[in-house]
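Morning run. Coffee first, then this:
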Amino acid sequence: MPPASRHAPPSATPGASIRPAAEARSRRPGRADVPELTVGEVAERSGLAVSALHFYESKGLIASVRSAGNQRRYPRSVLRRVAVIKIAQRMGLPLATIAGALQALPEGRTPTVADWRRLSAAWREELDERIATLTRLRDQLDGCIGCGCLSLRACPLRNPDDALGAEGAGPHFSPDPAARRRTR
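And here it is:
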């Protein structure tokens, strides 16, 4: 090797590539056998920000242990849990529902297919209700002309005299107009 290239930084060496530190660590010999991942490795593998992982941990959705240097370490099984959390959120499930379901999963081992079947069965009823609600909304909106509904009496979006303001801050909606009239 010529002396000039021996002292050149790797980026200046022809054919050399620079990999992120987490990727380089994960490709070290024996790295696949390491049972724990750093928060950066979990973030990289899951596509989530480190702050999102910390938030999930604060809500009890995932757990870590601390290294001797007080750094978070996650078991590899956390990748599967994070994937389930992301999918459940995309389906519209609240974090409290997700957390409740995840608490039923085993600690210290990767959940099995049977574990995941139980988890999805618990969500099925709530998802069926959401689908039915969205279907009713879609079908009712077919009868509207812009915001001037054909039947203001039956419109689930109508809020005469700000009656829903008494229910507190935030949006309120009922796809069943009869149910809204009963609660007023």
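Residues 36 and 76 are 6 Å apart (CA to CA). Good start to the day.
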